[in-house]
Design brief:
This protein has about 450 residues and is an alpha+beta fold. Helix content is about 25%, strand content about 25%. It has 2 domains: about 240 residues, SGNH hydrolase (Rossmann fold), CATH 3.40.50; about 180 residues, Exo-inulinase, domain 1 (Jelly Rolls, Sandwich). The radius of gyration is 24 Å and the shape is elongated. The N and C termini lie far apart (about 60 Å).
C-alpha cells in the first residue's frame, strides 16, 4: 500500500541532511539553484520548471517511504528507472526493493542525492542506470564515465561489501542526440574504469536492447528512449540471474530428481567431483590488447571436493546451481573439469542460463561445444525455442567418436568429432553463466 505524500510545502524547503565535506554543508530536497560544490563534472540538471517540480515531487515521495525502504535493494536512475514504479510491475516479488529514479536526472544529480536518498537507508545493494540525459545534452563520453566513477566511489565509501550492479547504457538513436558510437564509448570507458573491481558487476544491457544497427529496438522502445512493458520484462529477466547469485531471489534449493539410469555429476551443494586441471601455457601475444581476455593458467591440479567454491571464487555452488560468476576483469577464460573421465558412450544432460551476451562452453571429453546466450552471442542465432535469460536444456549424445547436441530439442551439432575418452568441462568467459541438473547416463 502506498504511503500518502508529505505536503510539498513542508519538505521542499526543509534541510534534511548534512553531506560529507566534499558536498555543500546542507541541502534541501528541492533542486539546488547552483551546482557549486557538487562533485562531478557533467551537466547537473536539464533545467526548467518542469524538471524542478518533478525533482521535488519525486524526492518528497522518497521521504514518505524512508522507513519502508530501509535496507532495500535500490535502483537508481532517471525516467527509465522511474517508469518501473514502486512495485517494479511485480517482477521482483519477494525482494525488498526501492525505486530511486527521477525523470530527467543525470549522473551528477545522482551524486548529489545519493547520500540522503540511498546511502542513509543502508541499502543491501544498488543497481544503477544513468547517463542518457547528459548525453542528450551534449556531454562527452569521458565526462559521463568520470561521473559514474564518482558514484561508485561514494557507494564503496559507504560499504566495501555491498554489491553494485551497473547496467550498461541502453541504446537509443542519433535522432535523439544519442548516437550509438558515443553510447558504446561510454560503456567501454565505464567497463575499463571498473575492471578488476569484484564489488561491481556490469550487466550488458546495451547488447540486450540494441537492434542490428546498434540503435534501440523499436519493439521495446516505442520512442527510442523509454521501455514498454515488454522491455521492462526483458530487463527484469536479464537481472534475475545476478539477483539469484546475490541471494535476492531463488533462495530455495532445487528439488530436481535425476531420471532413472542417470547419475548426477553435480550434487547442488558443493563442487565435489570437480576441479581445475593443469593447462598448457599459452603463447603470449606480441602486442597485448587492453581489452584482451585473461587466460587462467593452472600449473597444479586442484580438487574441490566438499568446497562450495573454487579456489579463486569464480565457480560457486549456490542452491542447486553451479554458477560461473561475472569476471571482474571483463573477460576471464578458465575451465572447471570433472575428476572422472568418460570412455564409454553416454548421454549428458544439463540446464544452463546466461546473462545477456554471456559466453561460455561445455567440454565433451576435450573439445568445446559453445554454450552461450545463443541469440546475442551466437553461433546458433536462429534457434526458435531458446529462452533468453532463462533455463535451457542442453543434451549431448556421444556414440563412438561423434556427438549429437541439441538445445531444447533443436539441433546444434549432428556429428561432432570427439576423442575416445576424457572429462566433462565447463568454461567461464564473459558475463555470468549458470548450470544445474548436470547428469549423465553411460552405456557400458
Amino acid at each position: 500500500m502506498k504511503n500518502s505524500l508529505i505536503p510539498l510545502a513542508i519538505l521542499a524547503f526543509a534541510f534534511v541532511a548534512v553531506l560529507p565535506a566534499s558536498f555543500a554543508e546542507e541541502y534541501s530536497i528541492a533542486l539546488p539553484e547552483s551546482d557549486d560544490g557538487i562533485p562531478g563534472t557533467g551537466m547537473f540538471s536539464p533545467g526548467g520548471e518542469r524538471f524542478k517540480a518533478r525533482w521535488t515531487e519525486r524526492r518528497t515521495h522518497f521521504e514518505s517511504r524512508r522507513e519502508e525502504d530501509k535496507g532495500a535493494l535500490f535502483f537508481v536512475g532517471d525516467s527509465i528507472t522511474q517508469g518501473w514504479g514502486d512495485d517494479f510491475n511485480g517482477q521482483f516479488d519477494g525482494v525488498k526493493i526501492a525505486n530511486r529514479g527521477i525523470g530527467g536526472d543525470t549522473s551528477r544529480g545522482v551524486i548529489y542525492r545519493l547520500e540522503r536518498d540511498v546511502l542513509s537507508l543502508d541499502p543491501s545493494g544498488v543497481a544503477i542506470l544513468i547517463g542518457t540525459n547528459e548525453l542528450g545534452g551534449g556531454a562527452a563520453a569521458e565526462v559521463i564515465a568520470s561521473d559514474m566513477e564518482v558514484i561508485v566511489s561514494e557507494l564503496k565509501k559507504h560499504s566495501t561489501e555491498m554489491p553494485i550492479i551497473i547496467n550498461t547504457m541502453f541504446p537509443s538513436s542519433e535522432s535523439k542526440k544519442r548516437p550509438t558510437e558515443t553510447i558504446q564509448e561510454v560503456n567501454r570507458l565505464v567497463a575499463a574504469a571498473m575492471k578488476g573491481d569484484p564489488q561491481v558487476v556490469l550487466l550488458d544491457t546495451f547488447t540486450l536492447f540494441a537492434d542490428e544497427n546498434g540503435d534501440a529496438r523499436a519493439d521495446l522502445f516505442p520512442d527510442l528512449l523509454h521501455l514498454n512493458p515488454e522491455g521492462y520484462a526483458a530487463w527484469a529477466a536479464a537481472l534475475r540471474p545476478l539477483l539469484a547469485t546475490l541471494g535476492y531471489v531463488e533462495t530455495e534449493a532445487d528439488d530436481f530428481e535425476v531420471e532413472e539410469g542417470f547419475e548426477s555429476l553435480f550434487n547442488g551443494e558443493d563442487l565435489t567431483g570437480w576441479g581445475f586441471r593443469v593447462t598448457p601455457p599459452r603463447r603470449k601475444p606480441k602486442k597485448p590488447r587492453p581489452d584482451a581476455p585473461v587466460w587462467v593458467e593452472i600449473s597444479e591440479p586442484e580438487n574441490f571436493d566438499g568446497k562450495t567454491e573454487s579456489s579463486d571464487g569464480r565457480y560457486q555452488a549456490i542452491k542447486g546451481r553451479l554458477v560461473v560468476t561475472t569476471p571482474a576483469e571483463g573477460r576471464r577464460i578458465q575451465q572447471l573439469w570433472t575428476q572422472r573421465e568418460f570412455p564409454n558412450d553416454f548421454t549428458l544432460r544439463l540446464e544452463f542460463r546466461a546473462t545477456p551476451n554471456a559466453d561460455s562452453g561445455v567440454f565433451i571429453r576435450q573439445p568445446q561445444l559453445q554454450c552461450r546466450d545463443y541469440i546475442l552471442a551466437g553461433p546458433y542465432t536462429e534457434l526458435e525455442s531458446y529462452r533468453p535469460q532463462d533455463w535451457n536444456e542442453l543434451e549431448v549424445v556421444v556414440t563412438g567418436g561423434t556427438a549429437r547436441a541439441t538445445c531444447n530439442g533443436e539441433l546444434l551439432e549432428e556429428a561432432w568429432p570427439v576423442p575416445e575418452t576424457g572429462p566433462i568441462g565447463l568454461e567461464g568467459d564473459r558475463g555470468q553463466m549458470e548450470y544445474r541438473r548436470i547428469r549423465i547416463k553411460e552405456n557400458k
